[in-house]
Amino acid sequence: MMISHCTSSTPTPPTLFLAPPSSRQRTPQLLGASRQSFFSTGALSLRFPQKKWGQILRHSMFLSTRPAVKDGALSVDGKDVLTGVPDNIVVTPLTGSSAFVGATSTIMGSRHVFKLGLIQDVRLLCLYRFKIWWMMPRVGDSGRDIPVETQMLLLEVKEHEPLDEPIYVLLLPLLDGDFRSSLQGNSADELELCIESGDPATVTKASQKAVLVNYGDNPFDLMKESMKLVEKQMGTFSLRETKQMPGILDCFGWCTWDAFYHDVNPEGITDGLKSLSEGGTPAKFLIIDDGWQDTSNEFQKEGEPFVEGSQFGGRLLSIKENHKFRRQEIGAPSSEPTDLKEFVSHYKATFGLKYVYVWHALLGYWGGLVPGVSGTEKYSPVMRYPVQSPGNLANTRDIAMDCMEKYGIGTLDPAAASQFYDDLHSYLVSQNVDGVKVDVQNILETIGTDLGGRVSLTKQFQEALEKSIAANFQDNSIICCMGQSTDSIYHCKQSAITRASDDYYPNNPTTQTLHIVSVAYNSMFLGEVVVPDWDMFYSLHDAAEYHAAARAVGGCGVYVSDKPGHHDFEILKRLVLSDGSVLRAKYPGRPSRDCLFNDPVMDRMSLLKIWNLNNCTGVLGLFNCQGAGSWPGMEIAVKENEDISEISGKVSLTDIEYFEEVAGDSWNGDAAVYSFKAGSLSRLLKEESMNVRLGVLQCDVLTVSPIKVYDEKVRFAPIGLTNMYNSGGAVEAVESCNEKSTSSLVLCIKGRGSGTFGAFSDMRPKSCFVNSEEESFKFRTEENLLTVTIPPRMTSWDLFISY
Question: Where is the composition biased (Low complexity) (predicted)?
């Protein structure tokens, strides 16, 4: 066994050793009732401090027990993590709770698979790439449940006593030099480490920093602290909280893709923007998706039947727009737009758009650039034929990728990447375009042969792309898409928005629940680096409210892809204010802690709960995702007489992480809970839970507001605009503004948007004023629910409540 050490100014690192081979147990040590050992056939362990029920600790501040060498095993307070680890495994201490794990081989190679040990009888959550472009979650309890291409592995480790809270162990496969790591299990329940370069000429014998292992008592703190460590060590990406946020995140948008697909055209865009505006939910940003570029496709001949997949053989002829956006109809008035700039300017002036983005692929188009034509020759494109890794081939095949393998990609010279992006983006800026959605990003991992490999090539293109975005656009104006490999994620230095799941498929009823669950779980990882993008959706659809509620709690941008005139404005007006803004929550929406190791799609019993925070309230989305779809490769038949039409669950205040941010130090533990679905208000104590029940594809959004005592006499908690899914997002601040000359209590609530403002109040107020105008109010004594009407078209307001 090789052990390497690093020196830094961090606290004293853990002391590590492994027993000599003769003293290691070769028989797997299965987990007993105490669940002491969850990796076997190796020797890596951690012991965790015991905690009493109800303690609220922070991983980075309180877990200070350090690993130590003892009795031939890597242990911390005696808890084995890996036992019987092969001699070629390398452990490098990092901090008091973390270490790098790597491996060495006796032969040089561009791809290695190493065994790390046995996993059994421990709850685990994997985020893995089920397609080359996209991740989804998988839960289980043993090594065989860990899919190929796992990019995050989280374990829940129980302590001895039933009431002891669990400890969480996180394993993050990393990039090490020119090699990218992933995890996988096998049929013997062994955890394996795969490292690969994607280039037969880029070889190694070792990767010493292939995986970060860290532990803590809060999975969300653990994820955050671990990503901070990785960012500091790698220096190749930045965390979400440090990035400039594009303005589109706080606006309602419309994307042309599912409205028109490749048939997008200027007239259709006008019709779509017009119908949204006339319905009272004006779009403030527009994404002109695939279909605007100047392309050719040798695999689609005019007059011949369409061949599915042939669209992925199209290539870019030039960086300019196609004939649909550069023409003038014969006999049309001279004032009609004639090029992309005039069309974009017309949309902005007519419909009040703030931002217009356009789509392009990372390599220009799906099939890259057309070689040997004047519009692309300066970028020296050559035909390359993608080669997928064994890991990708082991999971779900993708028609786009399969077709690109068949048709090839006109790949621009990596040395010309900066020039290509700068030419394209500067041209778009000259056309009054504000930003781009950059798709097909993971393609680079398949064309790294003779180009230094996947990691090096991704780094080169990502740096060139982000340099151009910074130089040409003013608002960090990029949405990344089809880029959920760690090659891309760990080179995301500037980009702040990334699509977080496979596409929204409006015509496939079995994918609606999978979409919501995938984004929520993927956000555990992606949300530390970017704002996860939940994709577009139809507002007029059987699952429209389901998707709308998810966006309301997702902390993401909100945009639809409705066909012109096909809208459900009742749903849209629960998301969008009259000025085209949205009530975006503060953080990426993620599953509640008690959902992390459940399968809310297929276990027939679990609801999905997604938590978030606003300025003054918490918000909790509830979703029944059972019975409407199955994970790829895991289809199961419904048992005879099995009734999963309704699922019940429990909700408590502990479902919302970091609730103390809005509750404050003086909070006594009570909260008001408003159900959007029921339109009812309840009071919930800190130690209590409430029962909920939802049918298939049903959802609810709970606004959870801490009840605070003002002037020692009034208990009050703002709910916000009860006509909006994320009601509490409308409340920006609450403060007491008493006049010393009177004994009256006056509460001032600052907010935005119009509709019905609601609040918990244990006393009936004397009066309510909105922006100095007295407004009538209602008070339901049985619920302590106070409601006040905020007049229409009011974008911001001060509400004064006098007692």
Answer: 7-23
Strands 689-695 and 646-652: antiparallel
Output the CA torsion sign for 673, 678, 680, 682.
negative
pLDDT for the residue 1: 33
Extract the tokens encoding 586. 């503060």
Q: What is the token pair recorded at 225?
A: 């602290």
Q: Are strands 315-321 and 293-296 parallel, antiparallel or unpaired?
A: antiparallel
Q: Which two tokens stand for residue 786?
A: 């106070």
**Residues 576 and 281: beta-carbon distance below 8 Å:** yes
User: According to DSSP H, which parts of 677-768 are helical?
Assistant: none
DSSP annotation of 329: -
DSSP at 576: B
Alpha-helical regions (H) of 408-453: 417-430
What whole-number distance in Å separates Cα of residue 781 and Cα of residue 803?
Answer: 15
The tens digit of pLDDT for each residue in 106-159 reads: 999 999 999 998 888 889 999 999 999 999 999 999 999 999 999 999 999 876
- Taken in order 142, 147, 148, 153, the sign of the CA dihedral is negative
Distance from C-alpha of 690 to C-alpha of 653, rounded to nearest angstrom: 10
CA–CA–CA angle 439, 552, 604 (5° rounding): 90
Q: CB atoms < 10 A from the CB of 569, how many? A: 16
pLDDT digits (tens, 9 = 90+) for 384-423: 999 999 999 999 999 999 999 999 999 999 999 999 999 9
CA torsion, points 765, 767, 772, 777, in degrees to nearest 10?
90
Domain spans in the chain, listed from the N-terminal domain onward = 68-235, 290-326+337-343+360-499
pLDDT band at 78, cuts 50/70/90?
Answer: low
List the structure tokens of 737. Answer: 């503004």
